[in-house]
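Comment thread on ticket #2218

A.B. wrote:
> Attaching the input chain for the structure job we discussed in standup.
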Amino acid sequence: MKRFNLKVLLLLSMGHCMTDIYQGALPAALPFLKDKLGLTYTTAGIILVASNLASSVVQPIFGYYTDRKEKPFLLPLGCLCAGIGFSLLSFPSQYALVLGLVLISGLGVAAYHPEGFKTASYFTGEKVATGMSIFSVGGNLGFALGPMASLFILKHYGLSYLPVMILPALSFILLIMFFWKTIAIPERVAAVGKKTESHKSKKSTYIALALVIAAVVMRSWTQFGLISYIPFYYIDYLKGDAIYAGKLVSVFLLSGVLGTLIGARLADRWGHKRFMLISFALSSAVLPLIFIAKGYALFAVFGVFGFFLISSFAVTTVMAQRLLPDNVGMASGLIVGFAIGTGGIGVTFLGMIADAYGVPAALKLITILPVLGFIISLFVKYPSSSIQR
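C.D. wrote:
> Ran it. Output below, let me know if you need it in another format.
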């Protein structure tokens, strides 16, 4: 029987943080690479697209691979590849080699996540969403720390010191070796197989999973859209301060970290689907207020909205795992990789709207997305036996 193991969950969360540091650091390092290699904005943008495809969209493939047989070695290996690929970016003077290193780093990120979420699921006990939230916030923190860490090194020491960024990956690898026997337990395979009996129809399960994925795409599209266009709105359209816009984004993301932790606890009490509906409903109600609130009230709106929107992050991952209990790795990859990556790609469409009709039009379009997420969630048939009360 599974037991809640905070020590292991914190270790896996640390690995999640160390791995996602490199994904978050790449956009911050891109201007320095652009100057060194003399890249155009288009070729520089291709680097980010390659990173997104390698780190997010291919995650279900790694999930399928880990579901066939336990692959705990992907945890240290994935983190190491993520670190090596990014840390060596200062060496090549050829664009193709830089792309190759970005792909290595992205694939390392993609390898860690399905196995990480799958492994974490065996140490959550009955507090499934709560345990998963502990693992999930590591990634949120990694995204936040990545740009700060890389910019500190690049601004104070220069691009040649970028290899120092390998230290987070090495620290995690050394630490995980002390707990290797606990993490690489053979009983995990047997634990997975017991869950399939409660599923009446594969077709209905796949439909429910597809709807959960679609809802996550709406949530991710909303999140990445706001992160991308709030600065444009307050700097270019309202002629405001860049630092002010940056603080709004920071409040939004940090509130999301808190929402992930608290929301998961509530979801374990109220039920996963019910909480997902509440999250989308409250997000839909709060988001339009960004066009009305000003001053400190605007910061409060962004904080509350970030809390509500991102609070379902760990919950939707658990729902996917419960819908595909024999394919926990693939389910995690579909939600955390494919769905979130697809939501990020949707930002390109918002850019087309902004170019054609202006940034305010793009932001107003974003307010529709949580509503669509709520409507989609209504039709998810989630097994009652999977709801924790």
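A.B. wrote:
> Thanks. Noting for the ticket: Residues 238 and 278 are 32 Å apart (CA to CA).
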